[in-house]
Design a protein that fits this description.
With about 475 residues, the protein is α/β, with parallel strands linked by helices. The strands form six sheets. It has a four-stranded mixed beta sheet. A hairpin with a 2-residue loop joins strand 3 and strand 4. Helix 4 packs across helix 5. The radius of gyration is 41 Å and the shape is extended.
Length: about 475
């Protein structure tokens, strides 16, 4: 018997009119509400993701800049900060614009730190910069002999209204100052590149931002002094040959006056002589070509001749006041030779170094009696710690040479570090090497030397490097 049966899909019955009516009744209104809620369940996460991924959907991309504020200022004003940052009140700004404004302030070189915040109200935005200003350096114009400093300063101030004769070490404002000077020179018929450098000024023991003209050939033609006694001074006339005919440079002239002219006055007891600043006195038609031979004039006021009265000491323990007095080497009534006085301070420092006080410092403060024409000094002494010799580190020398050097070294570990003995040892290495190495062939051009101190332990290592 054939048990197979034929299978066919079961089709739904054709709905009747009553069935259709029932279905419509079922689908409205609750069924439609349920379908709508199911759609919202998957739409909400999508909408939330889009909003988080694109904050601009929540906030407008730009707003009208209403106010610019600045906090932490010391020498600049809010308006100057606003000019530097490149933003304009009433303009449309966004986040990128505010960040670029902060970057401009930082690149200017005027600020060590730049942060900002902004507040929005309706369609307006207020930005507040939190700033920390950089220190500034005094500015010098080294070789612009044809113009007064005031003229050059005014030229820079046209480009930088806040300019007060000082600038940071670097940044766009320094470049802008150089460009302003170059434009000023170009307007007067001299095309030259202006460069700027941070230099250590040996006269004031600090750094300065110096502007120099490149590619010019002006030279010092002569140096004249207002003090007639200098014209007849043989030492002064000999020193003039060191600078006459050299490229014009204000710094070079200042160094010459400090190192060659001031000692002449000091030796004669003119302790308060006023020298300079040097002036350029050009003659002829100012509309003609810039002259290359520059005559220099130096005003000098010698003042009074002083005599030595006394020195009083504070803070000294290792050396007695009587010892310090003898070391200076001047007695009451002696001519106050400024060079001898400086030599006395140096001898005292050497005396402390001989006893291992390598960090000893003197602070001599003069007191002048203009009626009696005498000078007294109050000298503060900070002796510091006494150091003991620990070890010698030698590089660049053969093993045999190093053994001879250690044999010739006068100190043993633990002994008081004698700086005078160290300097005498260096002199032997540089000028009398045979006294150390005998017949051993050694070859070196220079000896680098350092004293490496350990303040906590009170020890010092001698470092020697042969090249």
């Amino acid at each position: 018997m054939n048990c197979a049966t034929k299978w066919a899909p079961r089709l739904p019955a054709r709905p009747t009119e009553a069935t259709r009516q029932q279905s419509l009744t079922f689908a409205s209104p609750n069924f439609r509400y349920n379908i709508f809620m199911r759609q919202r369940l998957w739409l909400f996460p999508l909408i939330l993701f889009l909003l988080l991924a694109h904050p601009a959907c929540l906030y407008p991309q730009t707003a009208t800049l209403k106010q610019i504020h600045a906090e932490g200022l010391k020498s600049l004003s809010e308006q100057q900060v606003a000019d530097l940052c490149g933003l304009s009140i009433g303009s449309q700004v966004g986040r990128n614009d505010l960040q670029e404004a902060a970057n401009l302030l930082l690149r200017s070189g005027l600020f060590a730190k730049v942060n900002y915040k902004f507040d929005t109200h309706n369609d307006d935005v207020t930005v507040t910069f939190h700033l920390e200003e950089n220190p500034r350096l005094p500015v010098s114009y080294d070789n612009f002999p044809w113009f007064a400093d005031a003229e050059l300063t005014d030229a820079v101030r046209k480009a930088l209204p806040f300019y007060d004769g000082t600038l940071p070490e670097g940044g766009t404002v320094v470049d802008l100052a150089g460009n302003a000077l170059a434009s000023f020179m170009d307007a007067h018929g001299l095309k030259a590149e202006v460069e700027h450098f941070v230099l250590a000024n040996p006269l004031i023991d600090s750094s300065e931002q110096q502007f120099q003209l490149q590619g010019v050939t002006q030279r010092i033609a002569s140096i004249d002094f207002s003090d007639p006694t200098l014209k007849d001074n043989l030492a002064v006339q000999q020193h003039l040959s060191e600078i006459r005919g050299k490229p014009y440079s204000r710094l070079a002239i200042d160094v010459f006056l400090a190192e060659s002219i001031r000692p002449v006055y000091l030796q004669l007891g003119y302790l308060r002589a006023k020298i300079g600043p040097a002036e350029v006195r050009l003659s002829g038609n100012p509309n003609q070509k810039f002259p290359e031979d520059i005559p220099v004039y130096v005003p000098c006021v010698p003042g009074s001749v002083y005599h030595w009265k006394e020195a009083q000491w504070n803070g000294n323990n290792a050396l007695s006041s009587e010892t310090l007095k003898r070391t200076v080497g001047l007695n009451p009534g002696d001519l106050a030779d400024g060079m001898k006085i400086e030599g006395g301070w140096d001898r005292i420092r050497e005396a402390y170094g001989h006893l291992g006080y390598l960090d000893a410092k003197l602070s001599p403060v003069p007191s002048y009696d203009d009626q009696g024409h005498t000078v007294s000094y109050t000298v503060g002494v900070v002796e510091g710690k006494q150091y003991h010799y620990h070890d010698m580190v030698i590089t660049g020398m053969s093993a045999a040479g190093e053994r001879m050097m250690r044999d010739a070294w006068p100190l043993k570990p633990g002994e008081v570090m004698d700086k005078t003995a160290f300097e005498q040892y260096l002199l032997r290495l540089e000028a009398h090497r045979e006294s150390i190495f005998h017949e051993l062939p050694v070859h070196y051009d220079s000896v680098g030397h350092w004293l490496q101190t350990d303040t906590d332990k009170g020890t010092v290592d001698v470092l020697l490097d042969f090249k």
